[in-house]
């Protein structure tokens, strides 16, 4: 990861009683006792509480999703049936150990048709707090703890909170413009927004970092690997890309820091002569701030207009679908909606998958639509 806690060579760390407060490095002065240091608020460590709260919220929402799913009632077979209504859908239906698609839809998963036709725009936000399964949840929450807590310690809960939420919205928006046949859930867009914000922070605060190129190279490699994983099937890489681009631009807006020359002049020992510039920020920092804010406003406005008009960007970009999934001999990128034809004779139900022609016969007594849909999913996958 980028060395976010590394400060400029001119900044030192207090050693008094193990304090983690960061102060300007000692400047030569006649009497240290007569020129006490003042805390540099722009570099102080914050206590992280918001990111852990987000983690707890995501876990709670997953538990509620499993309660609503109630696999024993709506499916013929369940994984870990001893968990009762918290048991998981069959592997063929959901290999991530989680609820059914219908349960996720009830909880607020992103469904473009419902956003456009039924004006349920709130799904762009609620989908960020849902996960497709236990594996999905664990992967995202571990990443959020590693990345998010570090950022919150450096920049505080307000800026990191806005960065997380707006990036998540950006990821949902781009996903909705490209993937319109499936539902989408997960905090991945917001997580990639934090990665994008880290990259922007490194660039906009370039002058305060030691080992700049090493930090930049490490962060770029991490981002590239994560985006590369997104070309696998059943992974919404458009949410990753949208979240990353949003977070990258937001980083120039929220994570800007004054250059250390200004910090030394303002917080250095009293009476110490300084030849540093009086400007708080460099010119390039102001330029990046303005350009990023303009691009964010324009991007979100255009994206929302296109979404509400029902535009599918795949119609205007024949190759863009490869950004989310690259077909190989080992997997398919087919996202055709699953459907089955059902014929019943008494308690015998014969289902035929419309996608692959497979059929199966089941003994069911007054089955619910969710049970039939679950069996259909097993046939078609």
Describe this structure in words.
Serine protease involved in intramembrane proteolysis. It is found in: Membrane. By secondary structure, the protein is mostly helical. Helix content is 48%, strand content 6%. It has 13 helices and five strands. It has helices at 50-69, 71-74, 101-107, 112-117, 123-126, 134-155, 157-178, 188-204, 212-229, 237-254, 260-267, 283-308, 369-380; strands at 11-13, 22-24, 340-345, 348-353, 359-363. The strands form two sheets. The chain has a three-stranded antiparallel β-sheet with strand order 3-4-5. A two-stranded antiparallel ribbon has the order 1-2. Strand 4 and strand 5 (359-363) form a beta hairpin. Helix 7 packs antiparallel against helix 10 (237-254). The longest helix is centred in the last third of the chain and has 26 residues, at 283-308. The model is unreliable at 1-39 (pLDDT under 50).
